[in-house]
Amino acid sequence: MKIFIKYMVSMRCKMLVKEELKKLGLHFILVDMGVVDIMENITSDQREQIRIALQRSGLELMDDKKAVLIERIKNVIIEMIHYTDELPKVNFSDYLSEKLDYDYTYLANLFSEVQGTTIEKFIISHKIERVKELIIYHELTLTEIAWKLHYSSVAHLSTQFKKITGLTPSHFKNLKYKRRKPIEEIGN
Prior knowledge:
Strand order of the largest sheet: 2-3-1-4
CATH topology of the largest domain: Arc Repressor Mutant, subunit A
Number of helices: 9
Number of domains: 2
Shape: globular
CATH superfamily of the largest domain: Homeodomain-like
CATH class of the largest domain: Mainly Alpha
Strand content: 5-15%
């Protein structure tokens, strides 16, 4: 039985969900970003126990099909940008369509309707946060970061970075206190 969980955007969230399921005596096949496949059929009492346990940790059990799909879109984007070493070589629209098995136009319209922003802006927000992270780590040059995140040039990355943050990447790099957003707050 599959259940869908909102705000499940990190490895820590996955570990927390696994622990809560174990406490409830439930066995799982898969615990992934936003989705859990439980071996057993769960009762309404167990579902309520899961809901309460998740809420204590800032997570939310989802029932609405549109909300589930929106969360799946967000999780695919987050996983792609923050947890994949190599971004896909295809367009993000093709990647999302293939990954979620829906027409991109439908996904884009639904996302805009529910979130009040476009998928493209959501992706850009996450890419900029990833750029900040990579700048803070000092492991890659700006050219390498631009290449890694599929920007056409360093100038394109810099322009987008300044548009979103108000700072150039080099000015951000020189700040004493670099501000980053938690993943679940990006694009909301």
